[in-house]
Design a protein that fits this description.
- The protein is of the alpha+beta class.
- Among the domains are: 113 residues, no CATH class; 119 residues, Roll (Nuclear Transport Factor 2, Chain: A), CATH 3.10.450; 134 residues, Nuclear Transport Factor 2, Chain: A (Roll).
- Helix content is 27%, strand content 17%.
- Strands 3, 4, 5, 6 and 7 form a five-stranded antiparallel sheet that branches. A four-stranded antiparallel sheet has the order 8-9-10-11, with helices on both faces.
- A hairpin with a 5-residue loop joins strand 9 and strand 10.
- The longest helix has 34 residues.
- It is elongated, with a radius of gyration of 62 Å.
- The N and C termini lie far apart (132 Å).
């Protein structure tokens, strides 16, 4: 095995070990650069000791032979110096000729590959480093000639080895004459430049891939838009309820503008029930604006007496007017006059346009009808209720008077003394002075089921109790009115506090709606007229008196 660090491969280039190489101009004649197609001229060998020459050749062979799996990397040739007498024009011509020769050579190799040859581009061989006096190497028998030019290095400085660049034919590696290395097997492939692309099919593949991705994206976007359009179109389409005749009659679903026709009938009924001799002409003109030409111009008034209608309200009835089909209805209107009388009038109304409700007319004379029938009120099941009279008396004397005084005046500061922190809005708002001077008339405390088994009744902290309260108020006119309330009180460590208040209390005894059949405290007073007692807004005194009689 040859030592790479032997004196033969040192810079001295043939100097014995321990002796430095010589400096200054080389003592050897300069080598001429060979150009052409024939055999290169053989340099004149320099006589060296046989042992030193053999060591240099062996070291050059070891360095020039590529290892397994490692490509041979040639060294850069020495810089070419321009002769002293060569001009710049001659140099450009020479370089142009050299480039043309290289181009012609590459063109010939390309044509050879097209004709089916297996030869590839020449691969640079390893760099052979040897002193200028090294013996020339002769190709082995059967080895093809060199495909590239062999350029001899310029004269080397004493002590510096000469580097010679060699380019061998594919499949062969430069080796010393003494031992020819085994040819290295290689595969045909093209190595692109750093940052470049593979020349064979690379660009076409890249363009095809980009086109495929672009087309796929467009198709996916169009498909998504189509699906969203179908979903939105189906969801926004009109849907019919599919109601039957019973549902239509129950909910009064019709194309007839009933609400507009009812308002028109209410206005006509107010004019009809308001009359006096002083306003007869004005009343007649106003009625003519609503009714057709064949309708009674006085709306049934004989010209005597006076009446003033206070309110007119549609009672919810709309009977079909068969003569006009879907364009006519008999509208029921309840009219209350200033004397407290409640009257029901039936007004026939015709509508020309069912879509817009335009073209309304009173198509006939009105008729007076009785009030709607009244039903009996069933008795409430209060047999299971347990009443705590002691708690009711305590609330009536200690809590409720102060609370209702503050609540009636909407005194927020005073109400905080009687309400819980989580009291409802109705319990903390008040009546804003519309009713004053409250008097607690009656209190009923209902015992919760979880306390009914205790004797006496014991209410734990946080226990809520429902109570019914009847209060007599004084109104701004100086009269007394009675109102009933349902309240919720809560027991705390500091006592009982108000949490909620709601209006209205049911009559626990029940009874008939007709006052003639009622007995006891629920009977109407003799001074009440029959029409007034039949009014839907009956006095609340009946309810409060019933609560007091329990």
């Amino acid at each position: 095995m040859t030592d790479h660090n032997s004196p033969a491969g040192a810079v001295g280039g043939g100097q014995p070990s321990g002796q430095p190489g010589s400096f200054g101009p080389s003592q050897q004649p300069p080598q001429q650069v060979w150009q052409g197609q024939g055999q290169p001229p053989q340099p004149q060998p320099q006589q060296l000791p046989s042992d030193a020459a053999r060591a240099q050749v062996a070291a050059a062979w070891v360095r020039s032979t590529p290892r397994a799996g490692q490509a041979a990397v040639p060294s850069l040739p020495p810089r070419e110096t321009r002769p002293q007498g060569e001009s710049k024009k001659e140099k450009r011509e020479r370089e142009r000729a050299a480039r043309k020769a290289v181009y012609e050579q590459k063109k010939a190799e390309k044509e050879q590959r097209k004709r089916g040859g297996t030869a590839t581009a020449a691969t640079p061989g390893p760099v052979a480093t040897a002193p200028a006096a090294a013996a020339p190497q002769t190709p082995a028998a059967g080895t093809p000639p060199l495909s590239h030019s062999l350029t001899a290095a310029p004269p080397a400085t004493a002590g510096v080895p000469v580097t010679t660049a060699r380019t061998n034919t594919p499949g062969h590696t430069a080796a010393p004459a003494e031992a020819a290395p085994k040819p290295h097997a290689h595969r045909d492939f093209v190595v692109p430049k750093p940052g470049g692309r593979i020349t064979t099919g690379g660009r076409r593949t890249h363009v095809a891939l980009r086109a495929t991705l672009l087309i796929t994206t467009c198709v996916f976007a169009l498909g998504s838009c189509g699906v969203m359009g179908l979903v939105i179109g189906k969801s926004s389409g009109p849907k019919t309820a599919g109601l039957d005749t019973a549902d239509v009659n129950k909910y009064r679903l019709t194309d007839f503008p009933t609400r507009q026709a009812a308002t028109f009938a209410e206005q006509y009924a107010l004019l009809c029930m308001t009359f006096s001799p002083e306003t007869a002409s004005t009343r007649r003109a106003n009625l003519a604006r609503y009714a057709s030409s064949g309708v009674d111009a006085e709306c049934g008034w004989s010209g005597e007496g006076t009446s003033t209608a206070v309110s007119a309200t549609w009672d919810g009835t709309a009977e079909d007017l068969a003569e006009y089909g879907d364009h006519g209805r008999y509208i029921g209107v309840q009219v209350r006059t200033d004397d407290g009388t409640l009257t029901t009038l039936t007004v026939p109304v015709y509508v020309k346009s069912l879509t817009t409700g335009e073209g309304m007319r009173v198509a006939g004379d009105v008729g007076q009808m009785p009030l709607p029938g009244r039903a009996d009120v069933p008795e409430t099941d209060q047999d299971d209720e347990v009443v705590d009279d002691a708690l009711a008396q305590q609330l009536q004397q200690q809590v409720l008077p102060g609370y209702f005084a503050a609540w009636g005046a909407s005194d927020a500061t005073a109400m905080t003394r009687f309400t819980t922190p989580d009291a409802s809005q109705s319990a903390t708002s008040g009546l804003a002075g519309r009713l004053t001077t409250p008097t607690i008339n009656d209190v009923v405390a209902l015992v919760p089921k979880n306390v009914q088994n205790t004797d006496p009744y014991t209410y734990p902290a946080g226990q809520a109790v429902e109570i019914r309260v009847v209060v007599d108020w004084g109104d701004p006119k100086g009269e007394t009115v009675r109102r009933a309330y349902r309240m919720t009180v809560v027991n705390t460590a500091q006592g009982w506090f108000i949490k909620d208040i709601r209006g209205g209390v049911l009559d626990s005894q029940g009874g008939r709606a007709d006052s003639e059949g009622a007995t006891g405290a629920g009977a109407a007073s003799p001074s009440t007229s029959p029409s007034a007692s039949a009014s839907p807004s009956a006095s609340a005194s009946t309810t409060t008196q019933s609560s007091k009689g329990r």
